[in-house]
Design brief:
Strand order of the largest sheet of chain A: 1-2
Number of domains of chain A: 1
Radius of gyration of chain A: 23 Å
Order of helices and strands of chain B: HEHEHEHHHHEHHEHHHHEHEEHHHHHH
CATH superfamily of chain A: MetI-like
Shape of chain B: globular
Number of strands of chain B: 8
Oligomer: heterodimer
Strand content of chain B: 5-15%
Order of helices and strands of chain A: HHEEHHHHHHHHHHHH
Number of helices of chain B: 20
Helix content of chain B: 40-55%
Distance between the termini of chain A: 45 Å
CATH superfamily of one domain in chain B: Periplasmic binding protein-like II
CATH class of chain A: Mainly Alpha
Shape of chain A: globular
Strand content of chain A: under 5%
Radius of gyration of chain B: 24 Å
Chain lengths: 285, 423
């Protein structure tokens, strides 16, 4: 029996499976279970049935947070896909300058998110920020980056882009370096120009990397909390209040733990649907 | 064999008898940590048998971690606890009254009576047991840019040529005058907190929650007018919109010279003293229907851990560090926080702290009991985030005041429902 197990290699996966079960599967199951309770972390949890889900239906700020998350998805994900791709195309060849630039672009990803975002908060400040100071010096009107809903959403997207570009660029570079030069040689012999080579050779051959970058970007967006927490706190008003931040506020400033669990369940399902849809759409191309 | 047994028993007993009592203390880091470190170093000289390990817990996660620690039964022996959350933890804290006589040589009543009333009601539970000692006690007050006021020729109370607090109208005139005289973009900085809004409304005669903990803002016609006045202050560039819309740190505008006045508190002292090119002075909050301020800060208490030796040691340290003339003075001198005790003079070695103590002390004495009473509730503790968010949206022009008040009413009803009553 043991010999059979060893031969099937299943035995070697068991430790990882146990780890996954304890730290991933059970907590997820528990989230589902606790979403039926009312709990403030101090008094014992009280079973309330579907009450948390019913409250969620009436909670316009929760649905607003879903909408904000989706808006951010539309603005931010294409940015975090194409900008790193462009940089990767420019820097994937092994030269000294490209290596230095790659390290520079990767550096923000290594910075603690709160530290980097706090720096951006200073830069983008309406009255005291260096960006508006430069704009005023150049004769432009200052921009209320964090004071108006649309600029705030753009600011959040740009700061996310700044933080993530390095990581996603490195993924693309790895993908690009794995493409055999024979494909390019063949395309050139056939008379393809640079755009045709990119669109008909490089991009299709990056398919797996594209899916990886896309899912990483979406996953980061759906679990991103620190950037918005530090940059806008969800404001102005509720205009950058993404679902993870709303859940955090409900759980840890209002101690509505059961309700936060219920929102997490719904958000998990929505995120899962979007991710599967994105991957399917990408793979279908 | 018997000799070996004796040796073994002695070997095991020595650390138990002579070993140090180890206590863990959770604090918020930064200034608070430095103050506690200084006090602990002194305490070590008196009680070398007690070892206190300080653990920094970031402010944003403090309450969450403490709740989880209580839930798991692995709570620290001692912890600093933020004012709004203090009522919720009372039942987990030791009754310090049992140790007061032994440690301080006074009765529990004398101990409680020596504090400002707004502090006393926070540390004593409904049965009269003392659950906390004061530590980081703060009061809201104004900070003025001395040079801006000099240039405008405007006196300020009580150390700038005027003894009485401004009336609200006078205060508005002063802000406009100082702003114009110094050609600055705004006049007043104020952090986006429900506590500041509560103070503003209370001074002008409106109670956010009444004594029965009813939410009254949408039922009181005066409230809407005052809230509209508040929003107008942003529109007229009296106040800094970024502070309420984007939670910009109000110290930035004051220190950067964009505003002349900060509606802050005693806790700003250390930061403002670090500024070398500008001079700031504490001043009274304005007076309208009421003259008052809001207390805040952190209390200090010992948890019921079930280990009697550690509980006793923790209670003794808590009382020592929280009592005037003992560890409390060491803590205050290091942190530049004000004292929570009436008539308690601390030699900070800096005249500005004497001014802060006097300004905030007067405000603490003037503050009516209901101000602390209603805020010492779970409802207020949970209503603060919705108030911040709704008012931020109104200031940003994303929402009407009526809509915000309607939303706050819904939030209030929900909180009462979840709490199972008004508490």
């Amino acid at each position: 029996m043991i010999r059979k197990l060893v031969r099937s290699r299943f035995l070697f996966v068991v430790p990882s499976l146990i780890f996954l079960a304890i730290f991933v599967l059970f907590p997820i199951i528990d989230i589902f279970r606790m979403s039926f309770y009312q709990w403030d972390l101090l008094t014992p949890p009280m079973f309330v049935g579907f009450e948390n889900f019913r409250m969620m239906l009436d909670d316009k700020w929760f649905w607003n947070s879903i909408l904000v998350s989706l808006k951010l998805l539309v603005v931010s994900v294409p940015l975090t896909f194409f900008v790193p791709l462009g940089l990767a195309l420019a820097l994937y060849k092994e030269t000294t300058s490209s290596k230095i630039l790659r390290a520079l672009f990767y550096w923000p990803y290594m910075m603690p998110a709160i530290a980097g975002t706090t720096m951006w908060k200073w830069i983008l400040s309406y009255d005291l920020g260096i960006l508006n100071y430069i704009m005023k010096t150049l004769g432009f009107k200052p921009v209320a980056w964090l004071l108006k809903p649309t600029p705030a959403l753009v600011a959040v997207s740009l700061v996310r882009l700044w933080g993530l570009t390095g990581l996603l660029m490195m993924m693309f570079i790895t993908g690009l370096q794995n493409i055999s030069s024979e494909y390019y040689e063949a395309a050139m012999i056939d008379g393809a120009n640079k755009w045709q080579i990119f669109w008909h050779v490089t991009f299709p051959l990056l398919k797996n990397t594209n899916v990886l970058v896309l899912t990483t970007s979406i996953a980061h967006l759906f679990r991103d909390f620190a950037v918005i927490y530090a940059l806008t706190g969800g404001g102005p008003g509720y205009s950058t209040m993404v679902t993870p931040l709303y859940i955090y506020n409900s759980a840890f400033t209002q101690f509505r733990i059961g309700y936060a669990y219920a929102m997490s369940v719904v958000f998990l399902l929505i995120s899962l649907m979007i991710t599967v849809f994105s991957i399917r759409a990408r793979e279908a191309r | 064999m018997k000799r070996w047994w004796t040796f073994l028993v002695v070997l095991l007993a020595v650390p138990l008898v002579f070993g140090a009592i180890k206590l863990t203390l959770w604090c918020g880091g930064g200034t608070e940590r430095r103050g506690l470190e200084a006090a602990i170093a002194e305490y070590k000289k008196i009680r070398p048998d007690v070892e206190i390990e300080l653990i920094d817990v970031p402010y944003a996660q403090f309450d969450q971690k403490l709740r989880l620690a209580i839930l798991s039964g692995d709570m620290p022996d001692l912890a600093t606890i933020t004012y709004p959350y203090a009522p919720g933890y009372m039942k987990y804290m030791l009754d310090l009254s049992l140790y007061v006589k032994e440690v301080l040589g006074i009765t529990p009543q004398e101990f409680a009576d020596s504090m400002y009333d707004v502090v006393k009601m926070r540390v004593v539970d409904e049965k009269g047991a003392i659950r906390y000692v004061p530590l980081h006690f703060t009061m809201q007050c104004l900070w003025v840019n001395v040079d801006y006021f000099k240039k405008a020729g405007v006196p300020y109370p009580p150390f700038g040529g005027r003894t009485e607090p401004w009336t609200w109208e006078e205060f508005m005139d002063v802000l406009k005058k100082v702003k114009a005289a110094n050609n600055i973009p705004y006049a007043l900085s104020m952090q986006r907190t429900a506590e500041r809004l509560f103070a503003y409304l209370a001074i002008r005669g409106v109670k956010t929650l009444d004594e029965q903990l009813n939410f009254t803002l949408d039922r009181d016609p005066k409230a809407k007018q005052l809230l509209q006045d508040f929003v107008n202050m942003f529109k007229e560039n009296i106040m800094v919109p970024a502070e309420w819309i984007a939670a910009q740190d109000p110290n930035m505008a004051l220190i950067g010279g964009l505003t002349a006045v900060l509606w802050g508190g005693s806790w700003n002292t250390l930061d403002l003293l670090r500024v070398t090119d500008k001079k700031f002075a504490p001043a009274y909050l304005p007076k309208d229907v009421y003259w008052l301020s809001l207390e805040g800060g952190r209390l200090f208490g010992a948890f019921k851990t079930g280990n009697k030796t550690r509980e006793k040691a923790a209670a003794e340290f808590a009382l020592w560090v929280g009592w005037k003339g003992k560890g409390y003075d060491i803590y205050l001198k290091t942190t530049y926080h004000m004292s929570a005790y009436k008539n308690h003079k601390v030699d900070y070695g800096n005249p500005i702290m004497d001014q802060v103590q006097e300004v905030c002390g007067k405000l603490a004495e003037a503050t009516p009991k209901w101000v602390a009473d209603v805020r010492n509730s779970e409802i207020w503790s949970r209503l603060q985030t919705p108030i911040n968010n709704q008012m931020s949206a109104v200031v940003a022009g994303q929402m009407s005041l009526d809509e915000a008040l309607k939303n706050l009413r819904n939030e209030y009803e929900r909180i009462v429902k979840e709490l199972g009553g008004k508490r």
